[in-house]
């Protein structure tokens, strides 16, 4: 894999932020019930994974809200949303 052509973390982060924001637009702000949000990131050879989560008192109480995957070659992002569908 040619590393010169792969997106860097900051580039993927910007793509993931916009894609996540767009994916959450249909949901009411109240769907995210916590002001304590966290971001977990993982950079693999071919993609970056960004998970937005609501923190809990214990790590086991945390709830993942979204998982965004960014292809490091193309910049294509896919977002999974783990909230109840808006009515």
Q: Would you give an account of this structure?
A:
This protein is an alpha+beta fold and 87 residues long. The protein has one helix at residues 9-24, and strands spanning 37-43, 47-54, 63-71, 77-81. The chain is 18% helix and 33% strand. It has a 4-stranded antiparallel beta sheet, with helices on one face. β3 (63-71) and β4 (77-81) form a beta hairpin. It is globular, with a radius of gyration of 14 Å. The protein starts with 8 loop residues before the first helix and ends in a 6-residue tail after the last strand. The model has no long low-confidence stretch (mean pLDDT 90).
Tell me briefly what this model is.
The protein is of the alpha+beta class and 87 residues long. The chain has one helix and four strands, in the order H-E-E-E-E.
How large is the count of helical segments?
1
Order of helices and strands: HEEEE
Q: Please report which band the strand proportion falls in: under 5%, 5-15%, 15-25%, 25-35%, 35-45% or over 45%.
A: 25-35%
What's the shape?
A: globular
Question: What structural class do helix, strand and pairing data support?
Answer: alpha+beta
Integer-rounded radius of gyration: 14 Å
Q: What kind of oligomer do you see? A: single chain
> Between the first and last Cα atoms, what is the distance in angstroms?
44 Å
């Amino acid at each position: 894999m040619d590393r010169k052509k792969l997106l860097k973390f900051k580039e993927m982060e910007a793509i993931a932020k916009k894609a996540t924001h767009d994916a959450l637009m249909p949901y009411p702000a109240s769907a995210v019930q916590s002001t304590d949000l966290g971001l977990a990131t993982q950079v693999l050879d071919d993609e970056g994974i960004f998970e937005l989560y609501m923190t809990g008192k214990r790590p086991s109480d945390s709830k993942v809200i979204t998982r965004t995957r960014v292809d490091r070659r193309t910049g294509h992002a896919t977002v999974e949303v783990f909230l109840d569908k808006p009515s």
